[in-house]
Design goal:
Helices cover 9% and strands 55% of the residues. By secondary structure, it is mainly β. The chain has a single domain (2-120), classed as Cathepsin D, subunit A, domain 1. The protein has a 6-stranded mixed beta barrel. The N and C termini lie close together (10 Å).
Length: 121
């Protein structure tokens, strides 16, 4: 189970990145149920983490604009397992999408400091 907290009506959870030759790094992500991918990070953060490049793709944003973005591979700890996910180098804040919520139950108490839980089903 992954737990987080609500702040300013945003469901927040930490994701731990497994980085070769470096200590694991935990980053706070906004849970975005409108995003069908796994994760996004700002391009500057992707570069700083030196995540391996996979490909370029066109992403359709919430405002229906299409933008080219780079896709990288991230190794993370998720539900107690080390797993690799596609991560988009996009935007200004880290987003966690529904690809990571697949086969899970998401519960959120939408009040300040409310509990966020992601439980494998």
């Amino acid at each position: 189970m992954t737990q987080g907290i609500v702040h300013d009506l945003q469901a927040l959870v930490n994701v731990t990145f497994v980085l070769p030759g470096k200590p694991n790094l935990s980053i706070e992500f906004v849970v975005d149920t409108g995003f069908a991918g796994a994760l996004t990070l700002p391009p500057e953060a992707v570069a700083a983490l030196e995540l391996p490049y996979l490909q370029e793709m066109v992403a359709n944003l919430a405002d229906d604009n299409n933008v080219k973005t780079d896709v990288h591979i991230a190794t993370i700890l998720w539900n107690g397992d080390v797993t690799q996910v596609a991560l988009l180098a996009l935007g200004r804040r880290p987003l966690l999408g529904t690809a990571l919520l697949s086969d899970s139950e998401l519960t959120v108490v939408f009040q300040e400091d409310g509990v966020v839980k992601i439980t494998p089903s």
